[in-house]
Amino acid sequence: MLTVLRHALAMLLLPFMALVVVPAWLLTSFPPLAAEGSEISLSVGLMRAVGISVLLPGLALFSWCVQLFVRVGHGTLAPWDPTHNLVSLGPYRYVRNPMISGVALMLMGEALLWRSWAIGVWNGVFLVVNHLYFLLSEEPGLEQRFGEPYRCYKDTVPRWLPRIP
Questions:
Q1: Which of 4, 44, 113, 164 could form a disulfide linkage to 51, CB 3.0–4.6 angstroms apart?
Q2: 3-class DSSP state for residue 7?
Q3: What is the Cα–Cα distance from 151 to 145, expressed in whole angstroms?
Q4: What is the percentage of the chain residues whose pLDDT exceeds 90?
Q5: Helices (H), 72-116
Q6: How confident is the model at residue 97 (pLDDT cuts 50, 70, 90)?
Q7: What DSSP designation does 127 have?
Q8: Is pTM beyond 0.85 here?
């Protein structure tokens, strides 16, 4: 039961804020792009379909990463309750931060779904803030916690974009 609460708290405080609370505030504060002309319903429908087709793979990637953190890492996605084991399986074989990539895909999908330029800007801010956090805090902390295995992982797996074989 305590494990479920730990994960629920981490999910509520981090991805829920980034994916639900901030976008909801942005949607109420900054109106979505207005569609004009006779093609309103077609363009809005197409934009929403594309948004959903981007959001769902992001959700799948994010969910897969959280599952690996639980099963393999024996921890949560929260920095205050980190994994006990280095996770380098699944999407972590290709990039070091696939969970953030999943969240960014979901934010991009939301921006398209709601035709919101503000959520698109938030997605950019989210990525920059996370990039700085990884450089300044997370990666040094992982090196300290996991030592040589993490340094080897860091040398062979790119941070954001997978290497093309």
A1: 113
A2: helix
A3: 11
A4: 71
A5: 98-113
A6: very high
A7: H
A8: yes
Three-class DSSP category at 35:
coil
Three-state secondary structure call for residue 83: coil
Task: Report the alpha-carbon distance of residue 66 to residue 103 in Å, rounded.
Answer: 11
Helices and strands counted in the chain (H then E): 8, 0
- Is residue 26 classed as helix, strand or coil in its secondary structure? helix
Question: Using CA atoms, how far apart are residues 121 and 16, in angstroms rounded to an integer?
Answer: 18
Decide if 84 contacts 73 (C-beta within 8 A): yes
Beta carbons of 82 and 139 less than 8 angstroms apart: no
- Is residue 55 within 8 A of residue 123, CB to CB? The reply is no
Q: Contact, 58 vs 80, CB < 8 A?
A: no
Residue in the block written with tokens 């959001």: 55
137-152 pLDDT, tens digit per residue, is: 999 999 999 999 999 9
- Tokens (6 digits) for 7: 């994960």
Q: Is the pLDDT of residue 34 over 80?
A: no
